[in-house]
Write a structure and sequence with these properties.
The structure is a homodimer. Chain A is α+β, with helices and mostly antiparallel strands. Chain A has seven helices and 13 strands. The first copy, chain A, starts with a helix and ends in a 7-residue tail after the last strand. The interface between A and B is medium-sized, with 20 and 20 residues.
């Protein structure tokens, strides 16, 4: 496997080639900087309308970037030449809402009735925050972002339902306005914060005990700022207990040819 | 039927009551100012995913405000207490892509597999333009907005496909920047212009001969500015030739309890 320093200079297409060949099967943060990475959800078409509805009703945690029609595995829009059965570094396969296992590709279990959803990922706005010299603590600490299950319910969409799950980044008080402004420009990758300060108001008892990911330090003069998290749709998906569904393995995202800046509003 | 001057002061709920009783069956522009009106598309659930996909891939002409699950006729989100079978002033019923006729209500032809889509309507941003003293010519002239079929294709969504259809408003050169800024704030009601000036570049040969609606005067020093139009999804819908679909009759919109300002971005 090439070292991360080498691969980080490659284009999205070159990285996807390595992934397809099985040469790269590690997490994707830091790869193809400047290009949008996406969450992937694949499920039979009988569930697709309900899932689409859940995402539409909860756009902050579930921003839909693209959808492939039933049976389609080639992506022609934001990553031409891609095969969704092979071009994600690692897949999670769920049956009846339970993880069955992970795979490096899903060609053998592909079904003609599979619909693929690509959802935006917060890597895009983190890059924008860093460009504005706003610290992103979990990146500084080399950790996964801390994630918390809140008491805020999502709106139901057919069989899919669940709570809003959030990520937390500690932001210095004097940079919160700028952090709101910057992330507001990226509604397709979770957008503006959903909550600022007072974690107890959204059902988070202890910041040092995240439900997923790693705890990070909140320093003197910093306020915890919460953004909607892409784990939200995964949790709602599993609550619906579809016979089968496939997602990327967390952190092992799909890398598109779309520039982060193309996802920004005016 | 009450005079428009009387009805224009009524709340959305009061107007919907009149519509439900059959007392009001006329067009809705100018009613419940400040509240969002919506385009309505109702079709069997076997077509719903394709139509959702078409809308998602063409968000400027087809901004989805809300979707009701299969068989649901009560709106609980943005207009509680509403029955979509009775609360639109007039409905168009299409079979196989052809207009069969119009109706004052659709209770008799309602099907348990009907899915209802509400799409944003440009009345919302016109109100915002007027507040900023930007002229809206067809309102000044008491006409319907001019609409044109362009040579810009929409992205296909399943069986639904068709060209982008645009509305045109002549804007004084020195107010175009402001018109772009204002309408950019309303992505859920067609948002920013899709084209400014040079109608021939998008396949419009003669502004005085719109494909739908009425021609309006373009004065010296004004530039024609084009916005995506809500007729686009209707045309794509009919191209797909669903066995049955129902829409509002043009101009006879669904009036929601949502404030226009709630549809604005930051």
């Amino acid at each position: 496997m090439p070292y991360r320093n080498d691969i980080s200079r490659l284009s999205p297409r070159e990285i996807r080639d390595l992934i397809r060949k099985g040469t790269w099967e590690a997490p994707t943060p830091g790869l193809a900087m400047g290009y949008a990475q996406a969450n992937v959800v694949i499920l039979p078409d009988r569930y697709a309308f309900d899932f689409f509805l859940f995402c539409h009703r909860n756009p902050k945690p579930c921003p839909v970037l693209e959808v492939l029609e039933s049976g389609r595995y080639e992506v022609d829009s934001f990553a031409p030449g891609t095969d969704i059965r092979t071009d994600v570094p690692r897949y999670n396969v769920f049956r009846g809402g339970t993880l069955e296992g992970t795979r490096k590709d899903i060609q053998e279990i592909w079904q003609d009735d599979f619909v693929t959803f690509f959802l935006g990922c917060s890597f895009t706005f983190e890059e924008a925050l860093l460009r504005a010299r706003i610290p992103v603590r979990h990146i500084e600490e080399g950790k996964n972002v801390p994630m918390y299950i809140t008491t805020i319910p999502c709106r139901d969409g057919g069989i899919f339902r669940g709570p809003l799950i959030v990520t937390m980044r500690p932001i210095p008080s004097d940079k919160i306005t700028r952090a709101v402004q910057i992330t507001s420009r990226y509604p397709f990758v979770h957008g503006a914060p959903v909550h600022i300060g007072s974690p107890e108001r959204i059902g988070i008892a202890d910041l040092s005990r995240p439900d997923f990911g790693d705890a990070v330090e909140v320093r003197e003069g910093e306020i915890p700022v919460f953004w909607a998290c892409g784990v939200t749709p995964q949790a709602a998906l599993l609550n619906g207990k579809p016979d089968i569904c496939i997602t990327h393995t967390p952190g092992h995202m799909f890398i598109s040819d779309m520039l982060n800046e193309e996802l920004a509003t005016s």
